[in-house]
Description:
Elements: E1 7-11, H1 15-27, E2 31-32, H2 39-49, E3 53-57, H3 67-75, E4 82-86, E5 102-106, H4 111-125
Parallel strand pairs: 1-2, 1-3, 3-4, 4-5
Amino acid sequence: xxEKRKYILIVDDEILGAVGLAETIKDWGFYHxxxxxxxxxxxxxxxxxxxxxxxxxxNLGYGKKDGIETAQAILAxxxxxxxxxxxxxxxxxxxxxIETPYTFMRKPCDIKILKSSIESLLAKxx
Length: 126
């Protein structure tokens, strides 16, 4: 029996980096949902695609909801693990209210560690 391919949603307002990341995860054998660069787009894409994991940038632009608030809104309706990614020096304790498996990485991500984190979180969901 063939194993179901896993879908990953990338939520990042920096489109060039998100496109590169999407190509990388595709090369690893995962599907990716449409890219989402905002709170609203992320919620719509989660509803449409039902991802198995979400790669969430914490900073989603100025004056908008950030990645943590976006994750909390998603988790109100869907149980999905997260990898939070940021280029800023943000204290991991800000994520303590997130009640789902998650990990925290800094940009630029070490690709080998990212792949290992994705595989580990997806294995927990199986």
